[in-house]
Amino acid sequence: MLEDQTTAASAAPWPAAYPQGYAVVDVETTGLSRDDRIISAAVYRLDARGEVEDHWYTLVNPERDPGPVWIHGLTNDVLEGAPLFKDIAEEFATRLDGRVLVAHNAVFDWSMIAREYARAERTAPVRQRLCTIALSKELGLPLPNHKLESLAAHFGVVQRNAHHALDDARVLAEAFRPSLRAAASGGVRLPLLECRPLTEWTDGAARIGRQGSAPSSYGGGGTWRPSRKRQPCPYPNPGRYEPGKRLKQGMRVAFSGDTSVDRELLEDRAVEAGLHIATSLSRLTSVLVTNDPDSYTSKAVKAKQYGTPVIDEAAFGQLLRDVAPASDG
Fold first, then answer.
1. What does the pLDDT look like over 42-56, one tens digit per residue?
2. Between vectors from CA 286 to CA 281 and to CA 288, what angle results, nearest 5°?
3. 181 vs 4, 9, 135, 297, CA distance in Å?
């Protein structure tokens, strides 16, 4: 099957709109929160057709506890002599520059990388990302789940050292190549999303902002943009969103999955429009915003159970332009 796809892709004309190069990335981290740090990173550079050009790997001293050592195996002793992120930022940037960042659950890897660059008072040279989970869905691959090991097994790629950044990046690169060729052969649109780097770091004021957004505070205690205590939504919940109608102030909006625009920026816009941000999904939630309604995230599953209306990011962006006042009947 894979051989047939590869042969067909080689014979078919390559889509002119496809990117000219890719950086397949994997990072291991101290955890999953905004204040967690990268402790190792690997990049496989691929050409336009997915052939490997070179690869690179580094440990990174996180300047804190390494987190779940039982997963990644990187102890304090191993990381003590490793370079700081600011010391490898230039080399990392060289590997990413001008390429589409490819990762498995790309929003996580991109978010961690963007935060590390902001801490180093730099900007990551990445403008687009591609999630291999999203690509496998576009291709309709018959996978039992969305784990990297399942994608690897589908393409016959042997995983030797799971949760080691270099081996995970290798496995992903080897699985991405036939995925890319199958997409090219079938004329499949690649699920590319925009990357919006974190910017505007000021050491004295410790200020962090975003492209096209107002700066936000960087709190004390070593946390990364801690959850802001937003003022409670002043409007009552008018109930569920009705497809084809306007959003109304006070509606409870939940988000799930990857978004093209930074999630917190979307939330800021929603709050400014008079909507309530729901961190979980319940029967009171007015609408779920997700680009992947068929995913198995807890929010998507609950939305189906409760019959909660679901819209994608593009539709939500349009609706935000004309939110009905709470006073409307």
1. 999 999 999 999 999
2. 55
3. 11, 5, 12, 29
